[in-house]
Amino acid sequence: MKILVIIEACLAGVGRHVTELCRGLVGRGHAVHLIYSPSRIDALFQRGLADFRELPIKVTPLPMTRSPHPRDVFDGLTIRRYIKANGAFDVIHGHSSKGGALARLSGIGLPGVRVYTPHALFTMNPELKPLPRWVFARIEQFLDRLSDGIILVSEDEYRHALEVGLSKRKLFVVPNGIDLSVTQTASLPPQDRDLSQTAVRIGCVARFVPQKALDHLLNAFALVATKFPGASLVMVGNGPLEADLHATAERLGIQQRVSWPGPVDGAEAMKGFDIFALTSRYESFPYVLLEAMAAAIPVVMTQVGGAGSMIVDGVNGRVVPVARPDLVAQALTTLLENPELRRRMGEESRKRVSEFSLERTLDKTLDVYEALLSRRPMR
């Protein structure tokens, strides 16, 4: 197959997904072109681009805006000219909101199926006001008409897509996956961890943005810090809310118990954690949960994408409602008090993560492409 991938948000899980998808598709013998925006890009995506120089992937930068903008018309026409000059493509696959919109609009009337992976529909944000939610839902419904298929990365996102009114026939669930041979080798086996109550590290790897609700995690840690003087919190990442989060930790009196190592590779960071915590307002299917599972770490998380499929409450972690730092604190307390429970849940995580390999993600993505191509009439 000849595949064009389009992405604007070249960072975090979206960027990782795209670089691994492109690399995997080429490894399976497919021809891959990538149009990406250099406007929002992180070090992981840049490393992926550097790797692509050694691979038969045709890479084209196209600066794009994050929000809707009159420039989108120019970008869409540029992509359309690219498709005509380099086509015909079998698949035009856009990632995240802007990449998905441009992929579907620029491919109107051209050969190839148009595929969209939202990586968390914007309307999943529980704090979105009613009017913006209605507007964005209508936009998704309009663009749905231009889609041949929409790939959701979790059952939670699939259910939300149905609620928004997207066509069920076009929806496919393909969970994210990781390279287990690399991730599990890089992580410490559970028996090498200090499972005592004296020095337990609660870790989080996330962008410092409102979606992740990291202030809730700080508040939860403040509730348990006095009872567990040996516990510490490790906040891995960076972002626009960094100063606010430092100020929150200072106000709560826990700044000396919180470390801020900056951006660190997720699998590498897991080596230093005994418990992983994720307090997001909404998610699709975060890679950090898979990395925590591969490292045999129990997880405390909110009821967002990944809860129930990756993390099962009471089995390999604890799942609590969104925006309840008090319940996050209770879940942390249970794990902090019980080293044996942490060990058992960590072992269960390591067993379950085998269901989420990168190879399986590639298999299922190609299955979607082939299914959509089979629906198209012969030209």
What would you say about this model in short?
The protein is built from 14 helices and 13 strands. The protein has 379 residues and is of the alpha/beta class.
Biggest sheet layout: 7 strands, parallel
Widest sheet, order of strands? 3-2-1-4-5-6-7
Order of helices and strands: EHEHEHEHEHEHEHEHEHEHEHEEHHH
Q: Indicate the percent of residues in helices.
A: 40-55%
Number of domains: 2
- What percentage of amino acids are in beta strands? 15-25%
The end-to-end span amounts to 16 Å
Report on this structure.
The protein is of the alpha/beta class and 379 residues long. The protein has a seven-stranded parallel β-sheet. The chain has a six-stranded parallel β-sheet with strand order 10-9-8-11-12-13, sandwiched between helices. Strand 5, helix 5 and strand 6 form a beta-alpha-beta unit. Helix 1 packs parallel to helix 2, helix 1 crosses helix 14 and helix 8 runs parallel beside helix 9.
Explain the layout of strands and helices.
Layout lengths: L1 E6 L4 H16 L3 E6 L6 H10 L4 E5 L9 H16 L4 E5 H11 L6 E5 L12 H15 L4 E4 L2 H10 L6 E3 L6 H7 L14 E5 L8 H12 L6 E5 L5 H11 L5 E5 L3 H4 L5 E4 L8 H8 L4 E4 L14 E4 L4 H13 L1 H14 L5 H18 L4
Keyword list:
379 residues, alpha/beta, Rossmann fold, 2 domains, six-stranded parallel β-sheet, 14 helices, 13 strands, globular
